[in-house]
């Protein structure tokens, strides 16, 4: 009888350990500050003008942006076909709505299906920055300069 209880207890203990390991793995996968390492072409072409962190917009937004590179805000972006394909695939695979990061998942939920082309126009961004003064924005040289206020922005860490 004692052996039966011992085997039952051992089985429960093993199930608990496996469950904790799975939960921990899921936690790391969806870490809010997970370092998304982009291809060098993305860092060079996109990160030279603004924060290059894909999990701030949903895949639909990235598709729209990549589809209209000649009219990319204030500059015409020219990429060869291979670079465009590589960057587009990386953006799609690491967008807010892919579940790659917890922050991205939260952003995707708050967008309610919207696909803004500017991060600064998303409901999530506006809500998070509604208390930032115009003076601070001017000092940062605009809202696209995340690193002016968020030192680890390129890593996806946006705490103040």
Distance between the amino and carboxyl termini: 59 Å
Contiguous helical run count: 7
Q: Tell me what portion of residues adopts beta-strand conformation.
A: under 5%
**Largest β-sheet summary:** none
Overall structural class, as computed from helix and strand content, comes to mainly alpha
> What number of domains?
1
Low-confidence parts, pLDDT < 50 over ≥5 residues? 24-30
Radius of gyration: 21 Å
Organism: Bilophila wadsworthia (strain 3_1_6)
InterPro entries: Dihaem_cytochrome-c (IPR018588), Multihaem_cyt_sf (IPR036280)
Protein name: Diheme cytochrome c
Pfam families: DHC
Structural notes for this entry:
This protein is mainly α and 160 residues long. It has seven helices and no strands. The protein has helices at residues 2-29, 40-45, 59-67, 81-93, 102-111, 123-128, 134-139. The longest helix is centred in the N-terminal third of the chain and has 28 residues, at 2-29. It is extended. It starts with a helix and ends in a 21-residue tail after the last helix.
